[in-house]
Amino acid sequence: MEVILVIAEGAKAESLIIDNLKKVLFNKQVIIKVIFGTSIYNFYQRKKKYGEFFEPVEILREMSEKNREILNGINRRDISSVFLFFDHDIHSSNYSKEALKEMLDFFDNEYENGKLFISYPMVEALRDISNLYEQYNQNECYYEINKYREYKAHASNVIRNISHLSVYANYNFDIWRILSRYNWIKGNLLIDQNFNLPSYDNLNRFSQKLIFDKQYELIDKTNKIIILSAFSFFIFYYFKRSFIEEKFLNKKTE
User: Fold this and answer.
1) Which domain holds residue 91?
2) First CA to last CA across the chain, in angstroms?
3) Quick check: is 61 in a domain?
4) Interhelix angle for 97-106 vs 208-222, to 10°?
5) Coil vs helix vs strand at 54
6) Does 203 map to a domain?
7) Phi, psi of 174 (to 5 degrees)
8) Closest CA to 105 of 210, 184, 202, 186
9) In what order do the strands lie in the sheet with 108-109?
10) What total of structural domains would you count in the chain?
C-alpha cells in the first residue's frame, strides 16, 4: 500500500485542503499529514544547520508533540513518497530567493528527499477565482509583491459572491476541476503567454523550477507575480495522464 507523507506549512488552510483532497481524489493511499508550522525559509535554515544529517521526518518530530504522535514508530523507509506544500512568503523576515531556489533543487523527487510545491503568493491562491463559469479576466491573474501582506483579505474579497469556496471541507470534484483548470490556464499565461487551457504535453513542461524562474522574470519586469496554487499543480503531477486528460482536460479516451 502506498504511504504518502504530506508536509504542510500551516495548520489551518493547508490542513483543511489536504483533508479534502484526500476525501475527494484519493482512494487506497495512506496519507500522513504533518504540519511544519512556519515558512519555507525557516525550513531552509534547519536544512543548513543539519547539513548532511538533514532528515525531514526527524526534523518534523522536533517541531511539536502532535507531530511526534503522528510519526510515532514511522521512519523514512515506511514512507513511499513525500510532498511538501509551502507559500512563497516574500514578506517573511528571512525571505531569500536563493534559499527558495535551493529548496526547490533539493526537494525535487518525492521518492528521495521529497517534492516541493509552492503557492504564489500563499495557500489562498487556490480559491482566488471570481466565478465558476470559466469566464476569466486576464488582469485578475496578477498580484503586486509589495501587497503580499494584504493577500488573504484580497483573496477573501474575490470570492465574496461565491462564499461556499471559503469552506475547504465542502469542495467536491467539480470545484477541484474548475480551480485546477483555472490555475493551469494561469500557468500557461506565465510560461507561454497564452491565456487558455494548455494541453497535457504543455502542462507537463510546467515544473516547479520553471514556474519559479518565470515568476522571478515577471517580478523583475513588473514587480508582480501570477497567482498560482501549489495544489493544482500537485494534482497534475501526481495523477496519471489518462485521469487528467479525461477528468480535467475533456479529452476522450480511445
Assistant:
1) 3-247
2) 29
3) yes
4) 170
5) coil
6) yes
7) -60, -40
8) 210
9) 30-35, 3-8, 81-87, 114-119, 108-109
10) 1
**71 in a structural domain:** yes
CA atoms of 172 and 100, how far apart (whole Å): 32
Instruction: Read off the amino acid at residue 109.
Output: N
Q: Which residues contact 97 (CB under 8 A, 6 or more apart)?
A: 216
pTM for the full predicted model? 0.95
Distance between CA atoms of residues 7 and 67, nearest Å:
10
Nearest to 57 by CA among 22, 5, 13: 5
Q: What are the phi and psi torsion angles at 163 (to 5°)?
A: -60, -25
Cβ–Cβ < 8 Å for 187, 202: no
Mean pLDDT by 10 residues, the chain (254 residues): 90 91 91 90 87 81 88 87 93 89 94 94 95 94 95 92 90 97 98 97 98 98 98 97 95 55
Output the nine-digit C-alpha cell for 207.
515544473
Do the domain assignments include residue 253? no
pLDDT of residue 11: 76
Residue type, 158: V
Note whether 34 and 85 are within 8 A (CB).
no
Rounded to whole angstroms, what are the CA distances from 46 to 51, 56, 76, 163?
8, 9, 18, 38
Which of 214, 188, 220 is closest to 201 using CA atoms?
188
Cell numbers that stand for 230 in this block:
501549489
d(Cα 233, Cα 253) in Å, to the nearest integer? 22
Per DSSP (E only), the strands in 14-123 are 30-35, 81-87, 108-109, 114-119
Return the C-alpha torsion angle 120, 122, 126, 132, nearest 10: -80
For the chain, what is the radius of gyration of the CA atoms? 18
